[in-house]
Amino acid sequence: MNRTLIDIHILQTVPPSNINRDDTGAPKSAVYGGVRRARVSSQAWKRATRVAFDDHLDRSELGVRTKRIVELLATMIAEQSPDLADRANDLAAETIRAVGIDVKAPKKTGADKKAVAEAGYLVFLSRRQIQNLAAAAIDAADAEDVPKALKAAKVKDLADRDHSVDVALFGRMVADQADINVDAAAQVAHAISVHPVETEFDYFTAVDDLNSDEETGAGMIGTVEFNSSTLYRYATVDVNRLADNLGDNAATQRAVQAFVEAFVRSMPTGKQNTFANRTLPEAVVVQLRDRQPINLVGAFENPVRELEKGGRVKAAAEALRDEAREIERAYGEQPVTTWVTRVGTDTASLDDLGENVALHDLLTAVGILVGTRLEEQS
Amino acid sequence: MSVVALRLAGPLQAWGSGSRFVRRSTDIAPTKSGIIGMIAAARGLRRTDPLEKLLDLSFGVRIDQPGQLLRDFQTAQRPRRDRNGDLDWQSLPLSTRYYLTDATFLAVLEGERALVEGIDEAVRAPHFPLYLGRRSCPPAGPVVLGVSDQSLHDVLETWPWLASSRVQKQHRERVVRLATIRDAAPDETAVESIRDTPVSFDPNHRDYAWRSVVRDTVEVPNPHGVSDPAPEHDPMTVLGG
Lengths: 378, 241
Description:
The structure holds 2 protein chains of 2 kinds.
Chain A: E1 5-17, E2 29-32, E3 35-40, H1 42-56, E4 63-66, H2 69-80, H3 88-99, E5 103-104, E6 118-119, E7 123-126, H4 127-140, H5 146-152, H6 155-158, H7 165-170, E8 186-188, E9 191-193, E10 200-206, E11 220-238, H8 239-246, H9 249-265, H10 272-275, E12 283-289, H11 312-331, E13 337-342, E14 355-356, H12 359-377
Parallel strand pairs in A: 13-14
Antiparallel strand pairs in A: 1-11, 1-12, 2-3, 3-9, 4-7, 5-6, 8-11, 9-11, 10-11, 12-13
Helix pairs in contact in A: 1-9, 2-3, 2-4, 3-4, 3-5, 4-5, 8-9, 9-12
Chain B: E1 2-13, E2 23-24, H1 32-42, E3 58-65, E4 68-81, E5 87-111, H2 113-124, E6 144-148, H3 152-158, H4 165-170, E7 175-183, E8 192-200, E9 207-221
Parallel strand pairs in B: 2-5
Antiparallel strand pairs in B: 1-5, 1-6, 3-5, 3-7, 4-5, 7-9, 8-9
């Protein structure tokens, strides 16, 4: 079987920051290798990645996740067929019901008589799915028995075809219609620091600009918790499953490129204005494998310590290279190809793993190889 | 009968046998339903496909490095696109998820040779990606350790200790005692029942049956040990008893 899996390994230093915090406001952490590490949860970085898709993909390839699915569909029905505008809300509600998604009639309060039915939970549909549903609703509008006509038009299948790129990558769960769930083709690990981290506290005072008395004290005082770390970030995309979800080789190729680029460049927004911690990775290693994805986090189970010669990044890059080679040796798990995008001399050891290219060229090369392998398979 | 051994290690794992809604717990060791689910996914079964032969497997797990419990607090937001195309995010209910951090387990499955070999191959080249109980917990390094003709019990007893060398050095004794949790034999007593036999992973009617397990310990050598195990504590000897 011709499998194609894309592993993305990233080393990224973030300055003092609080990208992802727990319910007490402290930066998230986890114990690994017996010591406490900084942690950024996978869901935080997945959201950052998904938001970044806006920059890399056309909106027609992205989905909408909303409870107000009826309203959205009604708008589209009215746009495509203006003479149905009066009935659009009812027609849309009927169509969503025919998909199997429960929508509740709105509470008619005095203030808002035009309220539209809502789904009980978030529904994640692609733009093309919504367009297809609108077309089906318009076709069924003239039928005597609208629900029956919708059923005959197989609207449920329409909601299970033409998935958007973000649904195909991150999955979709529909609580009461599990058979139109989509299994995510991308897997993102929690990012952890390669070294031990203790949380630090920044004590701050804020001064009242208009208070000109001499002994004013502070307008307010407080603390912000933060840490700074070099993170190991890992994600993998199962290209075959992504192609199953998208049903289109060209779209799959674009989706892989968009995911790699968005995952590399994105940054969760937690406390961004306080710390301005926008950095780009020191090193990105992308491996195309044909058997199983391999997470190299074991490289950092022994926490990296700062060396006399070179800092944490140098030691981390060497540990990552050694782990990759050691797994190749011990398990015979040789990647098909490895590309490396990196900055500075501290990361030079990673050139032992693969070709050193700029990110733009890496994305092109990944796209071409993914495209070729998908073609060979079909 | 043959066995296949798996190494389950990574910064985070989560093995729940009774989680619902916004509080997602983890057990102290991998569950049978979790491992059968992982193998079913590796073999390319959909959630709605029958599990059939996989349910005949015997399962045992050894806690080589227990790790620590981590509470993770998760917020969720939903995006909404304004009419002018901008994204706007609204908060959803908070959820609490528990993880095991820094843990390592030896999991063993026993069954017919062909089935066990099929599992070994499937885990080496899985159809759906593997994860340790939750999708955000990919395993560190390869999972499968190989197939052999020993019994499940022998493997749990004789497989070298998988804890990291740091943990091994912390234990000074030459022999360590590791906890095991395994399927009970039909005639075994002192068993415990947990709801952990998968019947169906179909999300429309997910179902688990009861499973009888035995909690036990095994002694394995510590390659980094330097001292003899402490003698059994027997206060009666002082009394000449």
